[in-house]
Amino acid sequence: MNSDDNKLEISYVPDDPDFGQEEQIQRRNEDSGHDLKKKPHRKPTSKTKVQEKVIEKLTKERDEFKDKFIRNLAEIDNFRKRIQKEKEEYQKYALGDFLKELLVITDNLERALKVKEGESTASSIISGVEMIYRQFMETLSKNGVMEISAINEPFDPNIHQALSKEESSNVSQPTVTEIYQKGFMYNDKLLRPTLVKVAIPPDPDTVLDNTDE
User: Fold this and answer.
1) What CATH number was assigned to the domain covering residues 147-200?
2) Cβ-contact 185, 191 below 8 angstroms
């Protein structure tokens, strides 16, 4: 027998029994250049691009609104602080002009006190005091302080305060007949009531409010 006849030509190698079925399939795929686990890359569709642009636009608008909101808050806070400061400044110096006018009256009073005895008669002193009084009342008037009219006026408990009363047949309603202390209004608001004496008609049913007697 020829020795060449004993040689077996092997054209197929069976699956290795030492490998499992999945490992054998994977090795075959690797040999053929395929990877079943690798997913194909998907190109973005036109719909996806539109959605991305919408999201980008909304994000930009959100950031702009947030920035404007923060700036507005800062402006409001600055405005509040400025108003508060102006209010404090006004309250602190509101009486500045009024006090300057009072200083002029103070100067006149000081001059009157410096007059030596014998250099001025009583009449001139009285006239000087009257001038200072008129000047003072004019200053009050210019600053909204007005004297309340009371004599022979009907009694008004809103602006008059009765300290005493008397019956009188000459009046048909409670009427102010005497002033104990002048009252004043400040810009249509009661600054101080007028202390008065009131005449009332001789009627036992007449009731006078705000009477201290």
Assistant:
1) 2.30.22.10
2) yes
Distances (CA, A) of 141 to 89, 144, 147: 24, 5, 8
Cβ(157)–Cβ(186) under 8 Å?
no
Give the global pTM. Answer: 0.53
For the segment 142-154, the average pLDDT, to the nearest whole number, is 91
Q: Across the chain, where does the E strand assignment appear?
A: 145-147, 160-167, 175-181, 184-186, 189-192, 194-200
pLDDT value at 156 more than 50: yes
- DSSP-based helix, strand, coil % in the chain, nearest 5: 50, 15, 35
Show the tokens assigned to 25: 């399939």
Residue 135 burial (10 A CB sphere; 0-12, 13-18, 19+): middle
* pLDDT above 70 coverage of the chain, percent: 71
What is the CB neighbour count within 10 angstroms for residue 199?
19
157: pLDDT strictly greater than 90: yes
Q: Chain-centre distance of CA 59, in angstroms?
A: 34
> Nearest to residue 180, comparing CAs of 193, 171, 166?
193
